[in-house]
Design brief:
Length: 196
């Protein structure tokens, strides 16, 4: 019986390997390492919604420890795509759900009323290959927005939305995600938006 079960669910490596090729290469590397493990391969597309859906499916199968390996460009939405898939909502003052990162400028609160409690009790580790802050010239929108195709004007809108997201998160949690190193990563590590 394998001591570890590993879900391999990468996206493509831009300009080199598609998602299936990446999945098979990771599986081969794990097999060659002689780690006593069982690998399940599930190449995925880009996007936080897919990540959140995979997290829910893993929890449905009894998984209680999840390791996410994200890139810097995964944080352009502050992690809201993943959090939305986990039933956290991001309403404006009219209770309209904000689904696009640039719309976060209208965010008034982060609603966790429908959050699956398994998310809070699950041990979630996030690995990220960047150490950028959430905001500013070296922040998520400025650095990674263009990698996602954002124009300079669109990157400014993303920055404004992330600033609003950080302000609302600080109001509800007491944590200022805009000032910590790896702020872009920290945005995805806030499962409890209950007011403190």
């Amino acid at each position: 019986m394998p001591s570890t079960r590993i879900l391999i669910a990468p996206n493509a490596f831009k300009h080199s390997l598609n998602a299936t090729q990446v999945t098979l290469a990771i599986q081969e590397g794990l097999q060659n390492s002689h780690l006593n493990c069982e690998c399940a391969c599930f190449p995925v597309g880009d996007g936080g919604d897919g990540t959140g859906e995979l997290m829910k499916q893993a929890q449905d199968k009894g998984v209680r420890k999840i390791v996410l390996d994200i890139g810097g460009s995964a944080t352009v939405d502050g992690g809201t795509g993943t959090l939305r898939a986990l039933t956290i909502s991001f309403p404006d003052s009219y209770q309209n759900e904000l689904t696009f990162p640039e719309d976060l400028i209208r965010l008034t609160r982060i609603d966790i009323s429908n959050l699956d409690p398994r998310v809070i009790t699950c041990d979630i580790t996030i690995l990220c290959d960047v150490d950028n802050r959430l905001l500013g010239a070296e922040g998520s929108a400025a650095v990674f927005g263009p990698q996602k195709g954002a124009t300079p004007e669109a990157a400014k809108k993303l920055e404004s939305g992330l600033a609003t997201f950080a302000r609302v998160a600080r109001q509800q949690t007491g944590i200022d995600i805009s000032i910590v190193q790896q702020g872009a990563l920290r945005a995805e590590r806030l499962p409890d938006f209950t007011p403190y």
